[in-house]
Amino acid sequence: MLSSQTELAAPNADKVLYKLCKHFALKIPVDFDTENAEIHFPIGDCTLRRVANHLHVQCRADAPDKLAKLEHVLQDHLGLMLKDPALVLHWQAVAEEIN
């Protein structure tokens, strides 16, 4: 499984998380509360964690093209929710855990 993560400062991060989850929940399964969210896309999953006015985002997929698509979708939708269509997120690869 491939994974990437990013973090962004977001004024009213609680409202952004809520709006984003309600938006996605119209079409795909989403589990969320005021601090955490798990969004289940057909091509992979994204986890969001809110800490104060910061959002930590992690995406997971089984192929590089799917992971890139998830990153793009999250960037676009967070840009919409933040009213910043030029938002650019800087994704970092996450090392695979060995169990």
Helix-residue proportion: 25-40%
Q: In percent, how much strand structure appears in the residues?
A: 35-45%
Poorly predicted runs are none
Which strand order does the major sheet show?
2-3-4-5-1-6
Mean model confidence by pLDDT: 94
Task: Describe the 3D structure.
The protein is of the alpha+beta class and 99 residues long. It is 30% helix and 35% strand. A 6-stranded antiparallel β-sheet has the order 2-3-4-5-1-6.
Write the layout of secondary structure elements.
Elements: E1 2-9, H1 13-24, E2 30-32, E3 36-41, E4 44-51, E5 54-61, H2 64-81, E6 92-93
Antiparallel strand pairs: 1-5, 1-6, 2-3, 3-4, 4-5
In short:
Helices cover about 30% and strands about 35% of the residues. The chain is α+β, with helices and mostly antiparallel strands.
